[in-house]
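If your schedule permits, I should be very grateful for your opinion on a structural question. Kindly check, if you would, that the fold set down in the tokens agrees with what the sequence suggests. Thank you for your consideration; the sequence and its tokens are set out here:
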Amino acid sequence: MNPESAPVVFIVDDDASVRRSIQDLLSSVSLRSEAFATPNEFLDGQRPDGPGCLILDVRLPGMSGLDCQRRLAEAGRALPVIFLSGHGDVPMTVRAMKSGAVEFLTKPFRPQELLDAVQQALERDRLLRDKRREAAGLKDRYETLTAREREVMELVVAGLLNKQIAAKLGTVEHTVKIHRGHVMAKMKAESLSTLIGMAHTLSAR
């Protein structure tokens, strides 16, 4: 695995000893990490384009961990988050988990507990990145369709038969079959159900 694609675990905690101990722990299992004392330091920094996750102290001077998580999401830079707190309470945990946190650990935490949460977070990020790449590829393929092919695709996905599509578009069934074949080939759809799934993905973007 090259350095650009290796996962990176980001750590934001105002306690230098906590940052060091987490980095040592991650290093012991060959995981790269970058540590920051404040959310602003992290938010202002450049992030490598690869899988990652964020270990974030929920109570920080200035911007809170929850605010940092929200800022990341608003900037389109969302990462799976593992919250740490020495003062964990139920409402805060609920807010963190509702915001999509992978885990909420109370200090002092067991090392294995944190490592398990990190592996879960990294796997979640890999899956999200794969989905984003798949959706981008799907959009690129859709852009290659002609205007008429897009019309045919929409009607096919809506469940119309070729003769019904021909009547609706004022053409003949044979022409619809040709357009339909082009749509299936360009979209790389192996079946009608696959094409329907692609259409749903495109409409959700």
